[in-house]
Amino acid sequence: MKQYIEERAIEVANYIINSNATVRQTAKKFGISKSTVHKDVTERLSKINPGLAIEARKVLDINKSERHIRGGLATRAKYINMTSTRPTLY
Questions:
Q1: Which pLDDT belongs to residue 85?
Q2: Any residues with CB less than 8 A from the CB of 61 and at least 6 apart, and which?
Q3: Contacts 24+ apart (CB under 8 A), 52-60
Q4: pLDDT digits (tens, 9 = 90+) for 65-88
Q5: What is the pLDDT of residue 64?
Q6: Where are the domains of the chain?
Q7: What is the distance between the alpha carbons of residues 9 and 57, in angstroms, rounded to a whole number?
């Protein structure tokens, strides 16, 4: 594995752990795809630093278990915003 990939995998994992970031947030921050973030954390990092991989995986598992809640809140906010900015017709 190339050196820059190993460094990126460690940097991505540290970012996820320190900021409790989601895969999407991490991908946006580093300018890489969600698939790359996931592969860095699950496959590559386990070969480089297994302890760090376990810590990052814990955060990702928590985020995955809570994502349906975040999606519901986003949808709720969307519809609240739509009704509050719609002009009245009377």
A1: 67
A2: none
A3: 52/10, 52/13, 52/14, 52/17, 53/13, 55/13, 55/17, 56/12, 56/13, 56/16, 56/17, 59/16, 59/17, 59/20, 59/21, 60/16, 60/22, 60/23
A4: 887 887 888 888 888 888 766 666
A5: 86
A6: 3-85
A7: 13
